[in-house]
Amino acid sequence: MTAAQGRRSVYASGGWVVDLARRELRFHGAPAPIGSRSFDIFEVLVQSAGELVTKDDLMGRVWSGAIVDENALQVHISAIRKALGPDRGMLKTAFGRGYRLLGTWTMRQERTPTVSVALEPTQVRGQQGLTGLPAATFELIGRTAATLHLRDLLSAYRVVTLSGPGGIGKTMLALEVARNLSPSFSGDVWLVGLASLSDPGLVPSTVAGALGLSLGGDQITPESVARAIAGRKLLLVLDNCEHVIEAAARVVEAIVSTCPATSVITTSREVLRVAGECSFHVPPLDVPSEAQESRDVLLSHSAVRLFIARTTASGSELTPDREDLSAIASICRRLDGIPLAIEFAAACAATLGPRYVASRLDDRFGLLTGGRRTALPRHRTLRATLDWSYDLLSESEQCVLRRLSVFSAGFTLEAATAVLSETGDASANVPVLIANLVAKSLVTVDRSVFEGRWRLLETIRTYAFERLTKSGEAELAARKHAAFFCDLLAPTGDSPARLAIEDLPRYGREIDNVRGVLDWSFSPTGDSAIGVVLTVAYVPVWLHLSLMTECRDRVQHALDSLDPASIRTAHLRMQLHIALGIVLQHTTGPVPRTEVDLVKALAIAESLNDAENQLLALWALWFYRLNKGEPWKGQLLAERFSEVARRTGDPANLLLGDRLMGNSLHFRGNQPEARRYFEHVLEFYVTPGDRFRSIWFLYDMRVAVQLVLARVLMLQGLYDQANDNAHASLAHAQAAGHNLSVCYAHAWAVYPIALMTGDIAAAERSVATVIDLAARHSFAYWTNIGRCLEGQLLIKRGHSAEGTVLLRAAMKSYIGTGWMTRYSEFLGVLAEGLGDEGRVGEANVVIAEALDWSDRTGERYYVAELLRVRGELLLQEAGEGPVPAAEDCFQRALELARQQGALSWELGSALSLARLRVRQKRHAHARQLLEPVCDRFTGGIESADLRSARLMLQSLSSHSIGCGCA
Question: For residue 834, what is the enclosing H or E element?
């Protein structure tokens, strides 16, 4: 070696030394673990003498010729800062520009042989080198991104630990990365399997044996292994370290501090916690959500692809149809995307089929036993995989894991402490023990929320619950679990908490826990008293989540468990009857049972002098009558509501009473008075400090008022204002994420305004939204309304044959469940469609039914339009003959529309009558009819009728000029 070859540049600052030739970063003589690519970056920075190095320049010099994104650079910057430890501030970031290395660095020349370490995936030519890796037997599915990221980590850190629960695929991923990097180490890549070791003291000799090191003597230590490796450039994979983790950590630490050219990958269910280690938590494979049904979308998920690949490899000729794919997606979800569990399920499905396996997953540990014979014993059944992890836990950790299995929807620290009370050491150290279980990949941090929350993967939870049952602790844990949630939602013990709207998302996250508590409470060994109180308390959450069917069934179950004659439970029975009366209207419809429940609730509330629940029962009864299409009876209930509201002295209750009156008057046909009530509510409305009532009343007050006000303004011909109010109510409902209110806003305001103003595309979008949300949330009312609107839209667009069939069928389903709101309107549109088809006789029968219905129920807002349609049908039936009856219908429609303050209906009637006058050659009279009505319209948005009327006026003006008429 020449003198020049033996010289190397060394930079020093304080206790830090950067040896460029040996590619070492040392602090007071001890190597600081840093990967080769990170060292390249450090070298560029130290040679820049404190000057700023831009990101582009840094990436161009370190990754010369390669296309690299900024995330890769960030990985290595983080690794350098981690290596610098307390002096991490030496690496300064110029935000958005680049980096500079601070400190006074002096350069000197030293002599030593150099060792080059570069983690580049370059192909080694000539010789294959050594190799200690098994050949790949399967394609690794769904791990491309993880493999690339791990390569980046291994060029930034000397030690990378792959952590995660059993069966997640740590070993397969580590081997894939090692094979990928083998050329960079000239094939000197070795796997050291530690799974079979029972004595931690054998770890150093096992490593030495795998590497073929001849150490001699009986004392094989981590230090002697490290010295034997010395400057050798190799990649070591230590697999399955969790049961000998301390011994493995000592070996790795010795290698990192002594062997600058050696990199280490470890796999373990918990990290080693050695200097310079970077942990990569291996994620599960991605699984489809429950809402995904498309074949292409399902097949795009790696968990599904693995299932199909392994089923095929087992000899099955599976060509999954839609139901099979749905079953496979369900299996993958319920197995948490854990590859080993999916492989077991796939092997079973190869003979029994995916649907059978999906139906039997409750017994997953008895079912999924088909592991490969060549696999490690703990990987031959799903139970054995988890037995291995469980047996490595301390007694206290085992106790905590068992108890946590009662939480179906995750848990907070407070909840965990509650179910672990009276468990000795476990209850005293809950935070520490949970942290240990997180570190050992048996408990997962729930990162979907900001506050501290944890959960168990479903497969681990199922296993732990089996252990809980076998330990004899299940009943005690279930009771503590139930008591915690009952105290949370009903802290007084016999009455639910007044939940605030802002708390609903937090309580909504507990829904699976609540379901578990209720199932236990009403079981033979449970406590039905807890179940009843919790059911009452959770009703607002079910309403908020739009889970009407579930709420109905749970409430009915709770009611059935109570003694109807007991005074002690009167308050609870009252609330359950109210809840049932409300949700029945959104599931089975306003059936007679609905009124029975609400009348019972009102009677109890009056006997208890409970004004708040009187208001709630009266509101629900008013809602029932309105849905029955009986606004006259609804108005009487609104007046009773206002009387009780005045006794409470609460302005919010009084405003709600005004809202009920406004709605009733709108459907009775008094638009000016309805508008006065609604504008009064909006003028004096403030968000109530106690928003408990908003939860029970289903719809946000401002949303409900604005959307019905929009309807009133539409009928009054104020289309700009109507449109603004409709979209404001929709935006508020969408922002709140309240699906019932979204349906309400679309169907009652956005859609009719779009239809009246000729915006067909917007009308179609509204109908589609209502139908979609109703289907997803089992809203019976909105499902029927959506279909009625769909039929109505087809008729208005001229597709009468198709529209009448759809509308008639939808109305039959609609009234079959007791819903009758807007019944007269739908009958009127159906008559129009039948008339367009030439079925005038049928249309007249329908119109007669609609008019009779309006007279009987008081739903008169649409009567002017019904009279106009009857007049048009009479004209159609009469042909060219005299039509005094049609003229009478139009005149009556005009008069009624004026009385009701419904300018839009007035225009429609005037337009029909004007066309008749033109037919009668009475052009001047036609013009006298239309002009004053059209002149009362202001604003930019016009209805289809208004556009037609103005075109007619232009035509009449031309006719007047042409014939010399005044």
Answer: helix 823-836
